[in-house]
Amino acid sequence: MTAALLIALLSAHAGELAGVTLPDTATVAGSAVHLNGMGLREKYYFDVYVGALYLASRTESDAAAIRADEPKRIVMHFLYAEIPKPKLVGSFEEGFSSADASLSASIDQLNGWMETVHAGDEILFDYAPGSGTTVTVKGQQKGTIAGSAFMQALWSVYLGPKPPTAKLKRGMLGR
């Protein structure tokens, strides 16, 4: 009976979407962040990844989530069998198409850290005020891109006016 109770408690504190279960809380820069929402990125009827947004304070506001200068995280948990690095980089380039030109070196750095991903792999973007956005690909920390301007541009890729899909954005915002 104790095991059943433990399983019930754990599942009550986790998010689940498309067979992906993520914890209700995570730690970014020593601070707790909470699962704000999860969304499914689909393309041509294929499930590509589950995107999750973790914030210090939950919100349904895209602007508040983008601008918040507090610890936060975006998780991309891949579902599709394989996404080659060039396709992944192309998606980021498309997402950053309206980003300020002053961020081009940072975007190039991010793209250089990308790798081919497979189902079950994750990419994490952890933002810490005063430090920047730390990028982790398949469990390997690649580096940190300084500044809140890059973080806001990256968060806008998912939550801004032209997200990969409206469904993904709504899910990540918990709508």
Short structural description:
This protein is α+β, with helices and mostly antiparallel strands and 175 residues long. It has helices spanning 2-12, 62-67, 85-95, 104-113, 148-159, 166-172, and strands spanning 14-17, 20-23, 25-28, 31-43, 46-55, 72-78, 82-83, 117-118, 122-128, 132-137, 140-145.
> Helix tally?
6
Overall 3D shape: globular
Q: List how many beta strands DSSP finds.
A: 11
Helix content: 25-40%
CATH topology: Chalcone isomerase
Radius of gyration: 16 Å
Write the CATH architecture name: 3-Layer(bba) Sandwich
Average residue pLDDT: 93
Q: For this entry, what is the oligomeric state of its chains?
A: single chain
Number of domains: 1
Strand order of the largest sheet: 3-4-5-6-9-10-11
| Distance from first to last alpha carbon | 35 Å
Q: Which blocks of ≥5 consecutive residues have pLDDT under 50?
A: 1-12
Q: How big a fraction of the residues is strand?
A: 35-45%
Helix-strand sequence: HEEEEEHEEHHEEEEHH
Most strands sheet = 7 strands, antiparallel
Structural class per helix/strand content?
alpha+beta
CATH class placement: Alpha Beta
Question: Tags for this entry?
Answer:
single chain; Chalcone isomerase; alpha+beta; seven-stranded antiparallel beta sheet; globular; two-stranded antiparallel sheet; 6 helices; 175 residues
